[in-house]
Amino acid sequence: MNTTDPTHTTDSAARRFDSICLIFNPHSTGNAPELAAKLRDQLTQDLPYSPEIRMLPTAHAGHAVDLAKEAAGTPNALIVSVSGDGGYNEVVNGVMGAGATDAVCAVLPAGNANDHHRTTARQPLAQAIAEGQVRQMDLLHLSTGNHPGAQALYAHSYIGFGLTPVVAIDMEKGNKGALKEMVSVVRTFAQFRPFRIQHADGTREKIDSLLFANIPQMAKYAVLSEAQQRPADGRFEVILFPHTAKWRVLLKAARAATTGLGDQPSVARYEFTALKPMPYQLDGEVRSVPANTTVRVESAPSALAVIG
């Protein structure tokens, strides 16, 4: 994983899009409708060509998946998620669900959780679209269960099990400094109980948190890893907190919010079994797996074309 940008440029020629779709939640608390309209007007004025620009408001949770999947079926399309990490996750999963496509994705931050944009953006989005430099980005591929039709999802930034989804949700509420981030950790951690998992080699372990990271930071201030690797290298970091005394976990959380956790193991695939029902966070969206469920996280190298 690259600590500044987990992507690489694919073409030197500027890409010109036939259509640009702006997907946003019309009831967003982050002014998504206004930001989408502003980007539309800026692109209409500044682009040296005239693509079809479509405003696509979502009607319900999960609707962005369907909108993005449909938009990705249009040749030479740019699909912009005007949202936070969760909304962008839906767009990414919609594009990946469309199968073979030449669609390109981008995110215009409009939410409380904008970790992906914060750690990967190179330039203002309108400028990036005008310059048309498309690059490839790794994704995290999550599959749960061994039965036919088992759930399979993608994450652009991180997947967290155990303590991670519980704490991160609270940390993302409002604008806070590093000290208040740590206060959030203390408050949320007070009622937390550890989880038992079984590793692929059959060994069992009680853990507080297990995080798979495609970006170096989350929850505004938590620095997950300082590993220096090639961009889009088909690997991700694994940050595991074995169960320990609460004061030790709090020290690790404080370290993440201040100096960072340092280098972490990097892998291309990780598998374990959740022995009890276990919550997890997928780019800010909270889900859960039932007891005795096999969980596999794999890198999807250069799976997504992006701009911005």
Would you list the SSEs in sequence order as H and E? EEHEHEHEHHEEEHHEEEEEHEEEEE
Distance between the termini: 18 Å
Q: State the low-pLDDT regions, or none.
A: 1-6, 219-231
Structural class: alpha+beta
DSSP summary, beta strand count: 18
Radius of gyration: 19 Å
- Mean pLDDT comes to 82
Largest sheet: 12 strands, antiparallel
Helix content: 25-40%
The helix tally amounts to 8
The fraction of residues in strands falls at 25-35%
Overall outline = elongated
Task: Give the topology.
Layout: E1 7-9, E2 19-24, H1 32-46, E3 52-57, H2 63-72, E4 77-83, H3 85-97, E5 104-109, H4 115-120, H5 125-131, E6 135-144, E7 151-155, E8 158-162, H6 163-171, H7 178-189, E9 195-199, E10 204-213, E11 217-218, E12 222-223, E13 236-242, H8 246-257, E14 266-267, E15 269-274, E16 278-282, E17 285-289, E18 293-306
Helix pairs in contact: 2-3, 6-7, 7-8
